[in-house]
């Protein structure tokens, strides 16, 4: 069933479940070409979530800040193309949530090992705030933290399971959000890891 978790935010339970194995195979192919890595924050810390990208633009963080880049800084080559299945899934999910013609140009691949987390933040590096963000959860479940439009608002918690998809648009697009430390658990499709795909229109 589908669930509105905030104004403009729709949780599509198990929307990607049938494609999950195919999505994971494509994640492994993309990350052969553009390896998962722990990026540095502008403040000099190492993130606990390993990241890579596919599509025309990829999200990167280093000592200079957060931005989208056409090239992988590890190889100085273009990010791998976004697989057609990724593009189609993102567009179908956006459509199911009421957003027509979502054309993501960026797909961030996040891999959470046990203990990895993402602290509360806003996604504000994208040019077009009218476009939604689509996220796909795979593997070990996680607790997603969804705050308000100010950092001080106490976040609501949502369990995200293998195959769940969330579409974030409208008033929730600039909400603070994060992921609580991922538990040591095993999932038949991913072992100890949680993967998250985040589709965005960056440019
Ligand atoms: C709510 N990733 O990569 S995806 C991120 O599970 C990020 O890896 C988390 O936050 C993860 O930036 C959460 C869900 C998500 C993505 C973007 C959002 C939720 C959002 C933008 C606005 C509001
Ligand atoms: Fe985010």
Automatic annotation (TrEMBL):
The keyword Oxidoreductase applies. Residues 103-203 form the Fe2OG dioxygenase domain. Its cofactor is Fe(2+). Keywords: Dioxygenase, Iron, Metal-binding, Oxidoreductase. Pfam families: 2OG-FeII_Oxy_2 (PF13532). It comes from the Bacteria. PANTHER family: ALKYLATED DNA REPAIR PROTEIN ALKB-RELATED (PTHR16557), NUCLEIC ACID DIOXYGENASE ALKBH1 (PTHR16557:SF2). This is DNA oxidative demethylase AlkB.
């Amino acid at each position: 069933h589908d669930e509105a978790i905030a104004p403009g935010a729709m949780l599509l339970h198990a929307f990607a479940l049938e494609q999950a194995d195919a999505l994971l195979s494509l994640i492994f192919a993309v990350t052969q070409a553009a390896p998962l890595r722990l990026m540095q924050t502008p403040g000099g810390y190492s993130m606990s979530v390993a990241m890579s990208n596919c599509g025309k633009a990829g999200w990167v963080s280093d000592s200079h800040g957060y931005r989208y880049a056409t090239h992988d800084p590890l190889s100085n080559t273009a990010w791998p193309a976004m697989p057609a299945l990724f593009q189609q899934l993102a567009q179908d999910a956006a459509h199911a949530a009421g957003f027509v013609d979502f054309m993501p140009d960026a797909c961030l691949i996040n891999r959470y090992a046990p203990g990895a987390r993402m602290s509360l933040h806003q996604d504000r590096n994208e040019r077009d705030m009218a476009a939604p963000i689509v996220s796909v959860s795979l593997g070990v479940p996680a607790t997603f933290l969804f705050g308000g439009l100010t950092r001080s608002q106490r976040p609501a918690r949502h369990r995200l399971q293998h195959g769940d998809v969330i579409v974030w648009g409208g008033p929730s697009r600039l909400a603070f959000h994060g992921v609580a430390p991922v538990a040591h658990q095993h999932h038949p499709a991913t072992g100890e890891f949680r993967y998250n795909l985040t589709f965005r229109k960056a440019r």
